[in-house]
Amino acid sequence: SGARGGAGVTLTALSESYKQSAGLLRNRLSQLRLQLKQTDDPEEKWQLQRRMAQLTPMLTEMNELAELTARYYERGYWRSEKYTL
């Protein structure tokens, strides 16, 4: 079953999925920032900052992929070399 069989995922659906994932990551990063403000423990601060440093590039990628999949077929849309073969 693939796209030829009609059961494939559309780029629009994929874009929405990336947008939802980006929203979840944004919410989690907001929670972590709040926790960071509320703690005085150096170890906890380090752990929170480390987790935020891991999640931030994921959020960037989700946003980029959401835009790419939403606009893939637009004429003149510039695609980043990062996501092209």
Descriptors for this entry?
single chain, 85 residues, mainly alpha, 68% helix
Describe this structure in words.
With 85 residues, the chain is mainly α. The radius of gyration is 17 Å and the shape is elongated.
Which helices and strands, and how do they pair?
Blueprint: H1 11-38, H2 42-71
Helix pairs in contact: 1-2
- What's the helical proportion of residues? 55-70%
**What global shape is seen?**
elongated
What's the count of strands? 0
Spell the H/E element sequence.
Answer: HH
Strand content: under 5%
Largest sheet entry: none
Structural class by SSE content: mainly alpha
- Averaged pLDDT: 89
Low-confidence sequence ranges: none
Radius of gyration equals 17 Å
How widely separated are the two ends? 24 Å
How many DSSP H or I helices? 2
Quick structural overview:
The chain is mainly alpha-helical.
